TrEMBL record:
It catalyses: L-isoleucine + 2-oxoglutarate = (S)-3-methyl-2-oxopentanoate + L-glutamate; L-valine + 2-oxoglutarate = 3-methyl-2-oxobutanoate + L-glutamate; L-leucine + 2-oxoglutarate = 4-methyl-2-oxopentanoate + L-glutamate. It comes from Pseudomonas rubra. PANTHER family: AMINO ACID AMINOTRANSFERASE, BRANCHED-CHAIN-AMINO-ACID AMINOTRANSFERASE 3, CHLOROPLASTIC-RELATED. Keywords: Amino-acid biosynthesis, Aminotransferase, Branched-chain amino acid biosynthesis, Pyridoxal phosphate, Transferase. CDD domains: BCAT_beta_family. Acts on leucine, isoleucine and valine. The lineage of its organism: Bacteria, Pseudomonadati, Pseudomonadota, Gammaproteobacteria, Pseudomonadales. Its EC number is 2.6.1.42. It is an enzyme of class 2 (transferase). InterPro entries: Aminotrans_IV, Aminotrans_IV_CS, Aminotransferase-like, B_amino_transII, BCAT-like_C, BCAT-like_N, BCAT_family. Pathway: Amino-acid biosynthesis; L-isoleucine biosynthesis; L-isoleucine from 2-oxobutanoate: step 4/4; Amino-acid biosynthesis; L-leucine biosynthesis; L-leucine from 3-methyl-2-oxobutanoate: step 4/4; Amino-acid biosynthesis; L-valine biosynthesis; L-valine from pyruvate: step 4/4. Belongs to the class-IV pyridoxal-phosphate-dependent aminotransferase family. This is Branched-chain-amino-acid aminotransferase. Pfam families: Aminotran_4. GO terms for molecular function: branched-chain-amino-acid transaminase activity.
Length: 339
């Protein structure tokens, strides 16, 4: 695809084949040096554990074009570390942080013409590790692939920074001691049907409750939850089955250090939503998506407004996106320059 045919003002979150992707193979106990390839099709054994037993994990991160033309990666060390934890959980070999970040830089440079202009979105990077090689028993794979591809993206939730409605799901995406905290495909497989049903009913996505008691908010199927109280508190769920998001972690730090909010990682009771004056979904793809309302047991609970973005959500958004695109100085180490 030529980038001349991309309408930068209309970018959503859709697959576009870009020029090059990174591919490294783990064989005989080590990762090879990795190469860039134009081929976007993987040739793997029909017995690959990734195909049968969900032995795979992935990451989501973005490269941003700055005003001065340079390119920023946002906290790639955090993505490398989370992918290592996901690999540990599914008995896959860790990709060393240095190899991970170097591969990200290679993919961004090789697809530079697909980075949206300053302020028009970002180049989304999708690193993943899959179990490959001939196998049939339920066990870890004999070989693995680590790959990263890149896609120019705009808003994940249509409309971006406008309030969206979410539906509390009756389904669970993760088990109490399961894989919810790892970024593995199985969690997303479990979310396909609930997400489809929520969207069919007119909601942006669904929100999951804790799988043990179904009384506390956990997260959106593709982003974390936060709420702002009238007492200037930033509250986000604490749970072993929630994905520890890097956007969430960053907002917790910014809420405290730059907005002077008190940060609370704790229970978010579904029956006490009235404590929040604002709420939002946050993640790499979702950025910050304001939550206008949450439907639970047939009733819509509206936060700040169904149409207007709340003032604290707006400030958090400006601070976060300002840092990512290089307009605002971020805390030390958050930005890694590609070029
Ligand atoms: N929760 C889920 C289920 C996600 O898929 C994501 C997206 O990656 C997040 C939370 C947010 O994580 P991050 O901010 O690291 O993108
Ligand atoms: C991300 O925000 O990077 C995600 O992985 C969310 C979704 C696209 C699965």
């Amino acid at each position: 695809m030529s980038n001349e045919s991309i309408n930068w003002d209309k970018l959503g979150f859709d697959y576009i084949k870009t020029d090059k992707r990174y591919l490294s193979v783990f064989r005989n106990g080590e990762w090879d040096n990795g190469t860039l390839t134009e081929d976007n099709v993987l040739h793997i054994s029909e017995g690959s554990t990734a195909l049968h037993y969900g032995q795979q994990c992935f990451e989501g991160m973005k490269a941003y074009r700055c005003k001065d033309g340079s390119i920023n990666l946002f906290r790639p060390d955090q993505n490398a570390a989370r992918m290592q934890r996901s690999c540990d959980r599914l008995l896959m070999p860790r990709v060393p942080t240095e190899q991970f970040i170097d591969a990200c830089k290679q993919v961004v440079k090789a697809n530079e013409r697909f980075i949206p202009p300053y302020g028009k979105g970002a180049l989304y990077l999708r690193p993943f590790v899959i179990g490959t090689g001939d196998n049939i028993g339920v066990r870890t794979a004999p070989e693995f692939i680590f790959s990263i591809f890149a896609i120019p993206v705009g808003s994940y939730f249509k409309g971006g920074m406008t309030p969206h409605k979410f539906l509390i799901s009756d389904y669970d995406r993760a088990a109490p001691q399961g894989t919810g905290a790892a970024k593995v495909g199985g969690n997303y497989a479990a979310s396909l049907q609930p997400g489809y049903e929520a969207k069919k009913a007119g909601f942006a996505d669904c929100i999951y409750l804790d799988p043990l008691t179904h009384s506390k908010i956990e997260e959106v199927g593709s982003a974390n939850f936060f709420g702002i109280t009238a007492n200037n508190e930033f509250v986000t769920p604490k749970s072993a089955s929630v994905l520890p998001g890097i956007t969430r972690l960053s907002l917790m730090e910014l809420a405290e250090s730059r907005l002077g909010l008190k940060v609370i990682e704790g229970d978010v009771e579904i029956n006490n939503l009235a404590r929040f004056v604002e709420a939002g979904a946050c993640g790499t793809a979702a950025v910050i998506t304001p939550i206008g309302g949450i439907q639970y047991n047939g009733k819509l609970h509206v936060f700040h407004s169904e149409t207007e973005v709340g003032p604290v959500t707006r400030k958090l958004y400006d601070e976060l996106t300002g840092i990512q695109s290089g307009d605002v100085e971020g805390p030390a180490g958050w930005i890694v320059k590609v070029a």
